[in-house]
Amino acid sequence: MTPAQFKAAVNKAQRQQKQAIENYNREARRHNAAIKKAVNDYNREVRTYNAKARAHNAQVENQRRRLNQEVRRLNSRPVGTTFVTYRLSVETLARTYAATEERLAGRTIAQAGRELVDRGSEEAANSAYLLNAMDGDGAVEDDPTEDELRGPSMQTELAAFGHDLVDRWTGALFSLSPRNPDAARHFCTSAREVLIAMIDGAAPDSSVAEADPSCDRTERGVPTRRAKVGFLLRRKGIDEESIEDLVEEDMDNVLGLFREFDNGTHGHAGRFTITQLSALRIRVESAIGFIHALCVV
């Protein structure tokens, strides 16, 4: 090898070494950047989750405070002669929710179960608020306009059960008007059909009976509503009697409300204020959301 050839070989080796070092450093930077990005993404997800958890917990606490406030307002007035049966149901629902929270305190339950329990506080609060509103003690400052009162809502939740329920609910909302002397009864009749159709659609008699041949049945031999509730809870991986009690009590409450109006026992002249009709709408909307959470897997 001549001196020139030797020098060329050395230069080549140096270039290759330099290139190898640059490649290594480039890969190291890429690797470190990927790790940094993964750490940053994880930390961002943790912060986002914690923020959502704090917001959720604050919302749940607000609902609990709201429930306690509505119950105190309810108990501050003498028992009237109207909505007597529904008042008993409101009080029972509030106690059932409190008992459910007490039984589940300190226990880890499925997320789906926790969602239903948390929604239970909203259900109980809305039922108590409705009763207060019907007794003239509603939040007038939160009244919607008449157009807003009849505006669309819950379309996403109801669309999961078929567009027919969206149409029925739209028709129910359309009947809400303080000028309509039969507004509440018409609304409740349609709303009852919507809620029952949601449960029956998600838990057909045949599916419930097949899953549990020994389930409770009505006099007609079909599974009871409680059997359907149990079927829907188990399908979501929830096997908690206290949660089943809460769901069943909530169904009793909202369907009992409809019976109050259908039977004409509400004791009012027939016309209701926007405050009262809005409270009625809010109560049923929350029930639709509650049943949607129960039914959709």
Give an account of the 3D structure.
Helices cover 74% and strands 0% of the residues. It has 297 residues and is an all-alpha fold. The radius of gyration is 30 Å and the shape is elongated. InterPro entries: pP_pnuc_1. Residues 160-290 form the Predicted pPIWI-associating nuclease domain. Pfam families: pP_pnuc_1.
- Ranges where pLDDT stays below 50 over 5 or more residues in a row are 265-269
What is the global morphology? elongated
Radius of gyration: 30 Å
Series of H and E elements: HHHHHHHHHHH
Ends distance = 78 Å
| Tally of discrete structural domains | 1
Structural class: mainly alpha
| Total DSSP E strands | 0
Mean pLDDT: 90
How large is the count of helical segments?
11
Largest sheet: number of strands, sense, barrel closure: none
| Helix content range | over 70%
Question: How big a fraction of the residues is strand?
Answer: under 5%
Provide a compact summary of the structure.
By secondary structure, the protein is an all-alpha fold. It is built from eleven helices and no strands. Helix 3 (111-134) runs parallel beside helix 10.
